[in-house]
Amino acid sequence: MQEDRGLTNLIANIFDAALDSARWSDVLANIAGFVGGQAAALLSKNSAGNSIDVHYHCGVEPRYTQLYADTYWKFDPVTMLSFGEVDQVASISELVPGDEFRGGRFYQEWMRPQGFIDAAKAVLERTATSCACINIIRSEAQGTVDAEMRRRIRLIAPHLRRAVLIGKVIDLRRGEAATFADVLDGINASMFLVDADSMVVHANAAGRAMLAAGDLLRSSGGRLVAGGARVNQALREVFAAASSGSKGVAAALTTREGERYIAHVLPLTATEQRPGGTSCTAVAVLFVRKAEMEPPCPPELIARIYQLTPAELRVLLGIVEVGGVPEIAEVLGVAESTVKTHVGRLFEKTGANRQADLVRLVAGFSSPLVG
Questions:
Q1: N or C: which end of the chain has fewer CB within 10 A?
Q2: Highest-confidence range of 98-107, 136-145, 356-365, by mean pLDDT?
Q3: How far apart are the first and last CA of the chain?
Q4: What Cα–Cα distance (Å) separates residue 196 from each residue in 16, 241, 251?
């Protein structure tokens, strides 16, 4: 329970930092403490591999931070491995034998003088031109990176990745409000920043379109209002609870025509500026999206990760889009026994035990961005 409360508060702080970059140093210190580290940094490396930017950091003296950015990142095993899979956690101790690492320049000239012994890294975002990641360093007293530290990093990495997407932590400066809004408009879910009285502080493009349609949610005097009285009251209670530190919740919403939507509410404590210079405290962010299966983006990525053949990929997508074995066999024009063979191989390659597990796997590859 204590870990759950600590994680919930940390996630809220991470999203606060996405809205206010001045918070990142303190948030990184909290992250380091949560996972069992001494220092942390958000950094990015260009695709050519010839430069690195340390955007935010804590626990390292400015002089050593500059030395790292200028020279020593080239000798850091985890930074050199910056083009790994997103959310992948890697540590120096698992990449390089201990004696070899301790005899190298990076340890002798940069880590040892500061009392550091090991570091872990998680990739947060990869683009065609750069890779963003978080590095967390352990002191000699804390010892090398262990399984518990890796587990905790994996708990927070997805939230850090979303914060990087929402705030463009690596590329944006504070005050670039227009660009910040463009980033939020790139999210395909309807997003609303609201205060404790359900007043809309900001809505992205999808959110504004939803309000304009008025089928599910609408704006009444600037206040977010749901179509049904029961749902409307539930949303107000959630927003009010968020202002007092309640953890995030999910709720089901339904239009008059019976279409189902899922709403996720996360508490915030940052202040959002309204047009004209007035400020309003946003206590929660509301994400709303239709309850439906989205196509993976792209299917070839699933095939590459799980080493699927074209036939196996067609059957996997058929399970999502068509249904059971007989229906897939009819659509693909093959025997049911052939489909069953492919399903068995899908179970072996993905580790799934049921077709429902395969559906959830594909759902995990849906893109959060507007196509």
A1: N
A2: 136-145
A3: 39
A4: 16, 8, 18
Residues 347-363 have pLDDT tens digits of 999 888 888 788 777 76
Summarize pLDDT for 311-369 with one digit per residue, the tens. 888 888 888 777 788 888 887 778 889 989 999 999 999 888 888 788 777 766 654 44
**Least confident piece of the model among 138-152, 232-246, 347-361:** 232-246
Alpha carbon 280 to chain centroid distance?
Answer: 26
Q: Which domains does the chain have, with CATH numbers?
A: 2-167 (3.30.450.80), 177-290 (3.30.450.20), 299-363 (1.10.10.10)
Beta bridge partners of 225: 218
Confidence class of residue 288 from pLDDT cuts 50, 70 and 90?
A: confident
CA angle 150, 152, 156 (to 5 degrees): 115
Show the tokens assigned to 162: 């979303």
How far lies 321's CA from each of 1, 296, 310, 314, 324, in Å? 39, 11, 16, 10, 10
* pTM attached to this predicted model: 0.48
Cβ pair 193, 201 in contact under 8 A: yes
> Does residue 156 contact residue 35 with C-beta atoms inside 8 Å?
yes
Query: From CA 54, how far away is CA 79, in angstroms rounded?
Result: 11
* Crossing angle of helices 2-19 and 147-167, rounded to 10°: 30
Rounded Cα–Cα distance for residues 319 and 326 (Å): 11
